[in-house]
């Protein structure tokens, strides 16, 4: 591998690293807010899951993925993973 190729690959990888860091910070902010939602739901005895809201989110994010030229199936798998984690956290909050 030439030095030019190594340098270009390094640039790409640096960009990927920056994007990964941004994703982690964005997820952290999202989970801070969903924790507040979990506490709110506990206070008002609301269920940890809201299937109607979750389905609307999935549909909305699938459309966003299409417009962003991202595979909508991937985006759905990703948001389902996030939703499952949020519900798990809400159940944990509910138990105290």
Helix content: over 70%
Task: Look at the helices and sheets and give the structural class.
Answer: mainly alpha
Integer average pLDDT:
97
Shape: elongated
| Assembly state | single chain
Distance between the termini: 56 Å
Low-pLDDT segments, ≥5 res: none
**What count of helical segments does DSSP give?**
3
Question: Total number of β-strand segments?
Answer: 0
SSE string, helix = H, strand = E? Answer: HHH
Strand content: under 5%
The main β sheet shows up as:
none
Q: What would you report as the Rg, rounded to the nearest angstrom? A: 18 Å
Descriptive account of the structure:
With 96 residues, this protein is mostly helical. It is built from 3 helices and no strands. The chain has helices at 3-43, 51-67, 72-95. α1 packs across α3. The longest helix is centred in the N-terminal third of the chain and has 41 residues, at 3-43. The radius of gyration is 18 Å and the shape is elongated. 3% of the residues are buried.
């Amino acid at each position: 591998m030439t030095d030019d190729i190594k340098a270009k690959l390094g640039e790409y990888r640096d960009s990927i690293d920056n994007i990964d860091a941004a994703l982690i910070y964005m997820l952290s902010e999202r989970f801070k807010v969903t924790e507040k939602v979990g506490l709110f739901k506990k206070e008002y005895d609301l269920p940890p899951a809201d299937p109607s809201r979750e389905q609307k989110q999935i549909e909305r994010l699938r459309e966003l993925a299409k417009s962003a030229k991202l595979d909508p199936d991937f985006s759905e798998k990703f948001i389902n993973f996030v939703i499952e984690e949020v519900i798990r956290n809400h159940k944990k909050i509910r138990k105290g």
